[in-house]
């Protein structure tokens, strides 16, 4: 007797939410409004001195581009956008983005942002201290400060997670470490660099702030690996806005 042919496997969906939200096109669609708000806000709030309110990572990367003779104001956000598009094309991902998926990414970003706020509060209790007025001193009007914090969420993630983390992983792999060790060391190295970068420019290195920023770097790196670039930027920007504006004295 001939064995019954098993029913064909159901066709695989092009991408469920959890995988689609990690794809480069979804990240770009989610981040595009933030990029537009930040770049337009810098020009509006900064006027002739727009560079004064740019986030540090944004300022550094623009400085590197200027050193190459590339001074166009919109070049950096365009590089981010076209980099994500190139990644999408190279990965042969489907060209589909839904509003429900974007809403889910926003909800994830807010959820993880509040989880990081809770982590900071718990660390504060462990150190028997809380930072009065947030992690950064308020030195600009609220609108300008909010714009700068949005830029931090975007460009710090571009620099430390999208660029530095894969580069560090590649270097550790070239040294013939296993993939697992390479990934762990890349996450740690990029997180330490993220924490140290906040003290470039004069801010005094303190154990509480440095430890928390390292933990935050580890948190963002894990989020980048597990949930993708878009949710990580959304979480970072939401956290900075809540702590740096709403909770700041």
Quick structural overview:
With 249 residues, the protein is mostly helical. The chain contains eight helices and no strands.
User: How many strand units?
Assistant: 0
Q: For the report, how would you describe the main beta sheet?
A: none
Mean pLDDT: 80
What is the H/E order?
A: HHHHHHHH
Shape: globular
**Count of alpha/pi helices:** 8
- pLDDT < 50 runs, ≥5 residues: 8-14, 128-140
Radius of gyration: 20 Å
The amount of helix comes to over 70%
Structural class: mainly alpha
Proportion of β residues? under 5%
Distance between the termini: 80 Å
Which characteristics define this entry?
single chain, 249 residues, mainly alpha, 8 helices, globular
Secondary structure elements and pairings:
Elements lengths: L16 H4 L3 H23 L9 H12 L7 H17 L7 H28 L15 H33 L4 H19 L9 H40 L3
Characterization of this structure:
- With 249 residues, this protein is mainly alpha-helical.
- It has eight helices and no strands.
- Helix 6 runs antiparallel to helix 7 and helix 6 crosses helix 8 (207-246).
- The radius of gyration is 20 Å and the shape is globular.
- The relative contact order is 0.17.
- Mean pLDDT is 80; it is low at 8-14 and 128-140.
